[in-house]
Structures are given as C-alpha cells and as structure tokens.
Amino acid sequence: MLRSWRxxxxxxxxxxxxxPARSSISQANPAVAYWRELRVDPDLAGLAVxxxxxxxxxxxxxxxxxxxxxxxxxxxxxxxxWHPERPLVAGLVVRDRHxxxxxxxxxxxTVTVFDxxxxxxxxxxxxxAWVDDRLVLLLPSPPAAETPLAHGNPVALEATGPMYVKxxxxxxxxxxxxxxxxxxxxxxxxxxxxxxxxxxxxxxAALDGELYLEYAEDDPASEDGLSWSSLTVSVDGSGSPxxxxxxxxxxAPSKGTPVPEPxxxxxxxxxxxxxxxxxxxxxxxPAAVLWLRNARPGSPATAPPLLDxxxxxxxxxxxxxxxxxxxxxxxxxxxxDTVRAAMATVDGPMLVGGHSFSATLxxxxxxxxxxxxxxxxxxxxxxxxxxxxxxQHEKRHLWQAPDIYRAFSALEFAHxxxxxxxxxxxxxxxxxxxxxxxxVELYKAIxxxxxxxxxxxxxxxxxxxxxxxxxxxxxxxxxxWIERWTQ
Length: 487
Description:
CATH architecture of the largest domain: 6 Propeller
Helix content: 10-25%
Distance between the termini: 30 Å
Radius of gyration: 26 Å
Strand content: 25-35%
Number of strands: 27
CATH topology of the largest domain: Neuraminidase
Number of helices: 6
Shape: globular
Mean pLDDT: 91
Number of domains: 2
Structural class: alpha+beta
C-alpha cells in the first residue's frame, strides 16, 4: 500500500511525494542508540527516521503543469525546502547512511548533490531552510578524539530521603550524539559558512532575512530534561547570535491522502463512577476485541490502536480516578464495572487487549471477568515490584502501597489468567518499565500455572510497532488468535 501527499511552495510550485504506507525494518540503522526515550541515529547525527522513505517525488511548477520526476533515490522523508522566490527546492539525500544536501532547479530540471558536505539532522524536522539565497543546514560536530579504553574510575553516590533517585542522561550526553553547527550553504559555490557553535537544534526558519533557530538547554525539572530557547543570526557570518522572543509562523504539516472510513463509529459514554469513559465501535458489528486505552481525564489517549485484523474492534477510552490514597477496591470497580458495561453494549464473543499500562488493565479485566474469551497485550509491565518508586498514575512507592503494586502486577495473578493470552513485545523496548523480559516472565508464569499463552518477540522493535514487516506479522497473528478463540 502506498501513501502520497502534496508539499507546496510559497510561489505556486508543488511536489507529490509517494511512500510506502509503513517503513521497512531494512531501512533501520543497527547503530541506533537511545537517549532517554529518544532514538538517535549516530550516522545522521540526529533522531532516527521512522517514516517510510519516498519512492517517487514529482515536482510541478504550477497547478496544471506536467510533473518532473526528481532523479534521486534515498531522499530523507522530511518536508522539502522551497526557495520563496526562485525555482529552487532542496532536501537531504542519504548515501552510505550519511546525509548530504541537494538543490534542484525545477525550471531547468537539474539537480545538484553536494557530496562533499555531510549534513546532520539533530532534533530538527525538517533539518534545512532557505534564508534569502542560502540554504541553511546542519553540520555534524567532528568526532571526539578517541581515548584509550580504561576500566573507569570508581563512582560514589549518596542521598538522603524521602526522595526519588533517578539515573537519567543529561543534555551534554545528548549533545555528544546530535549537536550540530548551523551553516549557510551557497548553492552556486558549494561553500558553507558556519553560523554558531554546535547546538541541539529543534527548528530552523527564516525571520526578517536572518536565521531563526530553536535549541535545547538543560532543564532537570522538565519531564524530558530539556527546555528550548531561540536566537537569530545573520547568514553571511557577520555578527553574533541574538536571543529572540517571537517565533516565525510554522507551516502546517503536509497531510497524506485520506483514507475514508467505511462507516462512522458510534460513541457511547459510560460512567465510571468518577469520569466518563468512551466506547467507540461501528454500529451493527459485533466486536471481536475490546481494546482498552487508558488516558488521564481530559487528555487524549496516546496508546496505539489495535492493528487491522479484518475483525471489528471496540475501543474503550478508560480514564481512571487515581487519587493519592487510591485503594484496590476503588480502582477495581472502575475497571471491571466499565468493562462489563462496554461488553453489554457490544455483542459477540470477545477478547480484551491493550498496550503498555493498558495491557495490565486488559489482563486485570481478564482475571476478573469470566465472560472474556482471552487477551491480546502489547509491551506491558507485568511485575510492578521492578518499578518500586512509582509508575503511571501511582506516585506512592512499593512500601507505602504494596496492595496496589500486587494488584497491578499480572505476574501476581498469573494463576487467574486461565483463558488464552497473546503477548507481543519488541526486543528493543527501551522503556525502563517494559523491558521485553516482562513478557517472557509472564509467558512462563501463565504456562506454569496451566494456562495457554503465545509469546511474540519482534527483533528490532521498540515500545510501539511501526515497521511494515512487524505489522504484517502481527496482523496475521492477531487475526489467527481472534478466530481461534472467538469462533
């Protein structure tokens, strides 16, 4: 299946980009590293590219002009950089895993690749912008001088509580991987002028004839450890960078070709006793799976939906009231009563499922609702004693709320999972709470207690699944599991 979208310039030119619907694991770089939850590609000196790469870029000079096929392969799947006045468009091409800038003149239908310049992507997307007649891009920092390997120095740590001790990498460690120097490339001479010191860059844009950029600063108090500041600098190399308060307008992201829904799903509100859960399904279709997605009240759910298996799925958005003194009894009623109400609304023999923390909720429901036929769970944490200082909604530590930790550890109630459970986990899941061993141990526990379990381990997959090969494999496995246990 292919996906296409239109990328338009300010002067009427536009391009039609076509990509596979999902990226292939063959494009993944085995050298990808992690900084907290960011996947970093050292060869791009930037974040790893998860989107599928364009297979065709067709450029048009105006709305009705014939298209010109850009004669390049392996173009980075980022928004193109259109010159605001001249018939020029630019991007990055990847060769031997390194990125290089290219500039195409779509009036003369010529393209130049600057092979002598290695580009970085840092944290920016897209990692390039036109400022007047110069293409601003990012140059990777030179590699640090190699030092002889050593055993390292002893480390001494001390703390006095109560407090939570976290071992998290800091900005200098991220900067070592993806810091890059903004530079202005003259497409006529092929010369690039460095504009600032290396920075972790999030955005590049033109602002009143100068370069506007956003860069990371260390912020231990923020959730991801970063805060973002901005500056402007002249692209001719004169003058010093200056702080700026107002950011230029950011264009809306290009949208792919829409895929119409065959029918409009019906939304039903279910009272949990504290909040309103939302059940969504297609009318007239018995659901084979009740897919749970937990979200904080008032915030959108971020867990991925169940993959397309050819069977109807009912989605239950389940916000939980989880105060600081939450009890197992209060949480039990919210989960089980809401799941039962959803099952009463949607006909059909049904499995239950979920991703990450919602995987635990799905297994909790399976253990307490005998009418459920089984479960499909992805990337869960099934032993909460391995996250003893808090998790998800629970801020108390293990020794303050041991009943909560046991109640939401599927390993503790594996003997109650007496209907079939399908577990899927990526071998590269770097979420500290959801290492793939969590699924392995639960699989062993279910079988040890006489239950039926099937374990799917996906090489190279992270906490969520997006590679085409993994999606195809999981869709088949899920479809077979649904048909096996609901028919």
